[in-house]
Each structure stands twice: as structure tokens, then as C-alpha cells.
Amino acid sequence: MTPAVSSIAAPEASPRPRWSRRMSPQCCYVAAGRCMPWLWAAAALAATAGLAIGLAIAPDDATQGDGYRIVFFHAPAAMVSMLLYAMLAACALGALVRSTRMPALLVRAVAPTGALMAFLALWTGALWARATRGVWWAWDAGFVAGALSFALCLGVLALHATLDEPRRRDRAAALLAVMGGVGVATTVNLPWGASLHGGATFDAPLSLTGSHAWGLASMGVAFAAWSIAAVLHRLRSIVLERENGAEWVRHLPELAR
Predict the structure, then answer these.
(1) Which residues contact 203 (CB under 8 A, 6 or more apart)?
(2) Which pLDDT score is estimated for 191?
(3) How many CB atoms lie within 10 A of CB 125?
């Protein structure tokens, strides 16, 4: 007599978590496309307000005259460049820890804008230091961290340009970004002695007023909104490049509704 077969059915495969579905290439592509127009508009409005305040409304500084106005470009660029590199390192860590594709694609999307913001921060900082201290460069935490983040973003782009196999270059770029993040964080916290940043930024410190604060805040919003929009624009291009031939790409008009 044969034994009875158990009537307990095998459990069904659990559905993908909601966060995983949200991080799929097609969902990120559509979401990025919906966010970009708002970000471009916010960047344009904030830049208009910030430039008007910074270049026309804010009064001259008592000791630095008109030369201090470069701060309306330098400070936002430096802040956004550090935020972008933090985002780059976080996405790289996510790409190494999890097997999802989007963090690795975000690393590649953030790197060009991060390099641009770091370059702007370095050059505007150098021009300001030259005008007030007579030097183009100083071994100061802000300068070194900015130069390091700029070089690391270029390194990520170089790895993507030179390695052929997608998974291999994604992993190599992620490793470089994570190790670089540790280096940037260490650099910022090292004691560098005399600094061109901080409370005694220059021999003649700025006399900031309310209009200066509003101008800096507006330019910060403009730089941040533009940078995020640029990252999303590049991300959409990378997603289409990677997903070329996928079924969902042929139905983009329906997905965008």
C-alpha cells in the first residue's frame, strides 16, 4: 500500500518588495522624467533671485568691496559638490551591498555633475583666495577635499570608459567611490593648521547681512536643483542604454502617462 501524498501545497514565491519595484529601471526612468521639469523651473527661479540679490541688491562688503561677491558662486558650488560626492559614495555602497542595478547606474550618473561642481568650487575658491590672500592654492581641508572629490569623480568616469564588461566596471567604480569617500571624510577632519575656511576665513572677514543670507540660500537652491536635474537627465540616458531591447522600452509612451 503506497503512502498518501501530502496535500500541503508548496508555498508560492513571495512577491518582490515594494521598494524593489520602485527601484526598477522603468520606474526610475518615469519618476525622473516627472521630476525634471520642476527641478529645472526651481533652478531657474532660484538662480534669478540669487543673482539679483548677490550682484545688485546685497551691499558691498566693508573691507572686501565687490570682490567678495564670488562667494555667491563658490559657497553653493562647494556645498553641492560635497553633497553629490556623499550621494555618490552612498550609491556605491548600495551597489556593493545589494544586487540591484539602480545604485550602480546612479554612481555613473552622479559622477559628471559631481566633477563639475567640484571644479567650480575649486576655481572660484582659488580666485577668491588670490584676490584676498594673494595665493591660488593652500593646503587647507576645503581645498584638498575638493580636489580629491574632483579626482575621484573623474576616476569613476575613467573606469566606466575603459572597462568593457558592465558588471565589472560597475563594481570597480563603486569600490573606488567608497574608498574615496573614506578619504574625503578623513581629509575634512584632519588638522591642517592655518585655514582659508572657517571663522577667520580672511584677514578681513565678511560683514554678512540678511540680503547676503537670502542670496546665498537662493543660489544654494539653484545649484542643488540644477545638479539633481542634471543627474536625473543623465540617469535616464544610462537606463535606456543599459535596457536597450527590453520590452518596457518599447512602451515608453504608455509608461510616461
Answers:
(1) 132, 133
(2) 64
(3) 26
What confidence tens digit (pLDDT) does each residue in 34-89 have? 999 999 999 999 999 999 988 888 777 666 767 778 888 999 999 999 999 999 99
- Which residues, at least 6 apart from 253, have a Cβ–Cβ distance to it below 8 Å? none
- Yes or no: say if 87 and 95 are a contact pair by the CB < 8 Å rule: no
Q: Say whether pLDDT at 201 is over 50.
A: no
Of 99, 54, 98, the C-alpha closest to 76 is 54
**Do residues 98 and 236 touch, judged by C-beta distance below 8 A?**
no
Q: Which helix (H) or strand (E) holds 200?
A: none
What 147-152 contacts at long range (C-beta under 8 Å, 24+ apart), as own/partner pairs, is 147/118, 147/122, 148/180, 148/183, 148/184, 148/187, 149/81, 149/82, 149/85, 149/114, 149/118, 149/180, 149/184, 150/81, 150/115, 150/118, 150/119, 150/122, 152/85, 152/176, 152/177, 152/180, 152/183, 152/184
Domain 32-191+210-242 has CATH 1.10.1060: no
| Position 255, amino acid | L
Domains of the chain, residue spans: 32-191+210-242
Whole-structure pTM value = 0.80
User: For residue 13, what are the contacts with CB-CB under 8 A and spacing of at least 6?
Assistant: none
